[in-house]
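P.,

For your records, the input lines for the assembly:
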Amino acid sequence: MLLIHCPHCEETLPEAEFAYAGQAHIVRPADPMSQTDEQWEEFLFIRENAKGAHYERWRHLHGCGRFFNAVRDTVSDRFLTTYPSGTPRPDLSTLTEGKA
Amino acid sequence: MNALTSFPTETLVSNAAVSVTKVPHRARLSLRARGDLGPLERALGYSLPRKIGGVTLGTACLGPDEWIIMTDDAAAIMAACASVDLPHSLVDVSGREISFEIEGDRAGELLTLGCPRDIDAIADGTARRTVFDGVTVTLWRDTSERFRIDVWNSFAPHVAHLLEIGARELAAEMA
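Structure tokens returned:
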């Protein structure tokens, strides 16, 4: 079972308490009327399929209930870091394997 | 079958290893608020725990802006908070869930049946929401050998049954 650090509870807890919630850092366009169909398609459906570090959202469903962001290595399934929603993407070069 | 008809007796199981009992009814209030909590705390008459898991006077912090208040006098708290000008939500959820008390030498071991958390790492006098065999529960650790779990009514028969089986197994191991 994966162990995930919840940035709100400040504890490292079993995966069973969490729910995956898709790719992180997808921003809804500020002016939706200006978007073309292709831009909407990109926003709604096109997602990364990263091999390696992947920025994703998780929710501490059976816990504090908060959404937060995580960087997970999709090859090793290790969490490189977790951080609250709304904060900028951490720089990948500063993350070391197995931290957090 | 529901939570009200399933448990005619208070004691579900009691043996040398562990006992599981239904906790008598108490009012429960769900409080959500963020920002400067000062006005709310003055109305309540005590300070709210800020760290998730912290418990003060029957009030547990479940999330960054969420608390559950166990009380015998919900009306007094509702009245005291009614005039607080901090935007907040205070909802009576007494009918939502019931609580079981799990007590005994092997109470922690019984909880490992359904709870993936490291039970030993939970400090005494704290409470948090967690999962028990797929059911969201609030787990209170009162002392090292006494726990309480709050379970939503519709899940209560399942959780109670599981605890009952587990308690019998633990007792059989000891015999």
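Two observations worth noting. The mean pLDDT of chain B is 89. Residues 27-92 of chain B form a domain with the Alpha-Beta Plaits fold (CATH 3.30.70.1520).

Regards
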